[in-house]
Amino acid sequence: MNNIGVLMTCPMLEYLEKQLEARFKLFKAWNLSSSKPDFFKKHSNSIKAVVGDTTVGADAALIDSLPNLEIVASYSVGLDKIDLEKCKEKGINVTNTPDVLTDDVADLCIGLALAVLRKICVCDQFVKSGNWINGDLGLASKFSGKSVGIVGLGRIGSAIAKRSEAFNCHISYHSRSEKPNTNYKYYSNIVDLAANCQILIVACALTEETHHIVNRKVIDALGPKGILINIGRGAHVDEPELVSALLEGRLGGAGLDVFENEPDVPEELLALENVVLVPHVGSDTEETSKAMADLVISNLEAHFKGEALLTPVT
Amino acid sequence: MESIGVLMACPMNPYLEQELHKRFNLHRFWKVPEKSAFLTAHSNSIRAVVGNASAGADANLIEALPKLEIVASFSVGLDKIDLAKCKEKGIRVTNTPDVLTEDVADLAIALMLAVLRKLCESDRYVRSGKWKKGKYMLTTKFTGKRVGIIGLGRIGMAIAKRAEAFSCPISYHSRTEKPEAKYKYYPNVVELAANCDILVVACSLTEETRHIINRKVIDAMGPKGVLINVGRGPHVDEPELVSALVEGRLGGAGLDVFEHEPEVPEELFGLDNVVLLPHVGSGTVETRKAMADLVLGNLEAHFLKKPLLTPVV
């Protein structure tokens, strides 16, 4: 398969790069040997696969520029950076990396909730700056027993619910349709969910419908003691609304792994003690990134051998 | 009861202080300039001491208060109280179990997640603007890691229950095996340490458990092992822990307690695999109120000659 052209859209993981180089003819979009137009003139016909991620995927323009594109293998579970319509239209296969990253993202979600409520980062900073000898910090908020509202009860949402239950949290959720076989309370609209929980968690896919699903109304319903945790996509939240709510004390706190314009983070958040901000690390562990990379490789190999794809997106 | 003298050992909670002041004749020990003179002057009127994890009732204090009837601790830990002396003199002792179990267990899990996923470090990374220059490093997965718990009491069991939801295999060491617990028992700490990825201290501090985490245990944990301490600072040989972390012989640590609080070894401040908290295990608004109410409830019960709510002695 060493003459099959594969285009990697951006740096993601060295291990994945090396594996792709060993098996295919790898082109790195961020490190082209010639200008972009020259590159495409020379190589576009030989590129049969694109490997993208949450930063750079495969939009209509890219797909149209690669006439022999057969498969887009995403190094992510989220598909918001791929023009799925166009792929369907052209019969291009799409794969992603579900399941292998579910635990890590759910773990991060709980980590963020605990960090916000128990002021973990504030406390760590307090001790490491030598301030403890001058007196204690104020009291934090209990996590166990709080009511948790999850937007999107897919693999990740369910994993978050399972973990929260061990902390005696009451679980409720909102999704496009009610899920049978759960004991969790369903809310058909997100404002009602927000009004009835203390910790609201975004864990759904980003689509046209869920863009800015957390808006002013939802933030108002969540209220001055409410906490928002976003481990979905930055675009799920109306970021300027979120920022003013936090600054004005209309929202109790937030734990955010994603932002509308990564890696830019609203400056006003940087000074707040009731927010925890992490750089889109939901699945960024050694174990999971290797598992994701292996899944990308396996999907590509299966495709080019004419075998069944492991994790196709339908 | 306003004539009953109650000695509060140190500042611990404004609400508790206020309520004690309302109901009793409250003496704030930390405001007393000449402590022995004070004790002599008030030895006949002080019938209760309210202590906590920092200051309790040692033999000297007990001896100086001949009318002492009850020591009510604003903590579940009893290491600052001379229990033998209390028993000898018929002095009742109460603590605050159960109401703080969840908070301490939550904190243990928070520390595990914060250490393995480098939450505080990556939050600092974002705040310092470094994310604009490049991605943060890969960290370590928490789900599925083997968790070893020292002490399977209320807090240890609550930690186990939470860790199980993250598919962590649980094992433990305690003075005696608990057959009702379906977790693997190790009769000694070194074996437990050698067979887990994250070792949590959740037992009470006694003469036997002082420095239960020593060089041998740290060696058994190894360069990938993570220590979580939500017990007491003296459970750990602190200098040994510090050199192991500085030299990379231990993978990381999440510590809520230290041998000489509020002093913390400065060598730990620059390590990115260490999370340090200022003894906040039960430090939530909800729990401290519940603890305060329990202290007040125990004192009232005692002086009204009713059964104590949470007696130890």
TrEMBL record, chain A:
CDD domains (alphabetical): HPPR
Keyword presence, NAD: yes
Domain D-isomer specific 2-hydroxyacid dehydrogenase catalytic, chain residue ranges per copy: 27-313
GO CC annotation, single: cytosol
Domain D-isomer specific 2-hydroxyacid dehydrogenase NAD-binding: 110-282
GO BP annotation list: oxidative photosynthetic carbon pathway
GO MF, one example: NAD binding
Domain of life: Eukaryota
The entry's keywords: Glycolate pathway, NAD, NADP, Oxidoreductase, Photorespiration
Key word DNA-binding present: no
Similarity comment text for this entry: Belongs to the D-isomer specific 2-hydroxyacid dehydrogenase family. GyaR subfamily.
Protein name per its UniProtKB record: Hydroxyphenylpyruvate reductase 2
Automatic annotation (TrEMBL), chain B:
InterPro entries: D-isomer_2-hydroxyacid_DH, D-isomer_2_OHA_DH_cat_dom, D-isomer_DH_CS1, D-isomer_DH_NAD-bd, NAD(P)-bd_dom_sf
All copies of domain D-isomer specific 2-hydroxyacid dehydrogenase catalytic, residue ranges: 11-312
CDD domains documented for this protein: HPPR
An example molecular function term from Gene Ontology annotations: NAD binding
Keywords, alphabetical: Glycolate pathway, NAD, NADP, Oxidoreductase, Photorespiration
UniProt record similarity statement: Belongs to the D-isomer specific 2-hydroxyacid dehydrogenase family. GyaR subfamily.
Name of protein: Hydroxyphenylpyruvate reductase 2
Organism: Hibiscus trionum (Flower of an hour)
